[in-house]
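Exercise 7 asks you to align residues with tokens for two separate proteins.
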Amino acid sequence: MTIEDKTNPNLVSLIEDLKDQARKNDAFIWRDVAERLERPMKNWAEVNLSKIQRHVEEGDTIVVPGKVLGAGVLDKEVTVGAFKASRSAKESISEAGGEYLKIRELAERKPDGSEIRILG
């Protein structure tokens, strides 16, 4: 599947912007995320809060090239960027003192991709 096969104009725009960001800032992470988003949606990452809890440290910033789901408990203050998140996941991230951002917002905040890990 390629970007031409995608029908969601917001997703197509995001993929193109991430690739531009990667070229401009020499930030491989944004190209990697863009390539993962080009895959069929059925192959996108679905990450539960319990996985985030297990694999991140307090204050970390992660990006999920897919969806964050609300199963599990999160008690660490982390910044999570994702294409989508369930309402319960967003609430839990906020209640733990963290922040949920769309991938585009995270890329604008950290254009060089430094100190960001991909989870999923």
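Second protein for Exercise 7:
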Amino acid sequence: MTTMQPKSTRSGNISLFMGLIALSFMGCASTSEVKNALAFPSDITQPYLVLDQVIDGSLDGQRGRLGRSLKFIFGSENKISLNQPTDMVVDAQGRLLIVEAEAGIISSYTETDGVWLNTDRVSVSNMKHPFGITVGPEHLFISDLTSALVIVLSYDFEVVGSIEHVDMQRPAGLHFDAKSNRLFVADPRANRVFVFSESGELVAQIGHTGSNRGLLQSLISVTVDPNTGNIFVLDGIARKIKQYDGEFRFISSFGEYDQVPGSFAFPKGIAVAMDGTLFVGDAAFGNIQMFDPSGALLFFFGETGTKPGQFLMPRNLFMDKNQRLFVADPYNNRVQVFQYFAQQ
């Protein structure tokens, strides 16, 4: 295991230093200012979401604004920046863990005064192409696209094992359901969801047999409703969200290919809120759509772009226990965090 930490290496002029510190305090927007500026929708008293933070690695360690000013002046041999993040999760210790697929790195963030700050970047041995991440009560799980494995780590990032199956070909999206203590693995090449116990024993396979309506084609992402236990699978080729009950029986589906809101073009990520609202990211639209469990469109936000609240081919989504929606925005090299407010 290799841990990389940033470090400063150059000295600079003290007068320039003081001037730039002043500028940094005038020019850096606070989290509250970002929230006030970016609410979705912006024209109602109680919006669905507000932008909480854009995590692009620019917040260096625990030094805040002063640290960023020092870094601008003195420089750094190892500037922190996210490298195509594809997935993220908040673990039982409250750390935000982000998969940097292109770099093969797991970045760890801790929350300080409402802001996520980078504390560690870890390279896991034998991990070739990490993609998805999820957490159980005792372990971290990372999907490796090229080795056909789900790598199992301790909370100290030590490899303690792996999960494999003879039919598993390209594990991608992961979800750990805390109520059933089961790991769900979406495999787009095998056209099914593998369901394992936390110890790695196969429990079930979803979508490769049964009625035509329940079959899956190049599925991308999977999540579980924390209240009902129902399983939602994002079927990429069919452009549908397919719902199964806790016994893995097909219930219903919705979605179709089109270029209008409520349909899908290139869907990539799915998450579910405590109130049952489904969030679906679409890489072609560059937005996030919100649906009720029946498939009725509630709202959509975002567009293709590089500004806060915009996305370039968004990937996986994650909803934490505080109802914050994390969106992997890999081609902007960032993760965007939105606070979700359920409508009464």
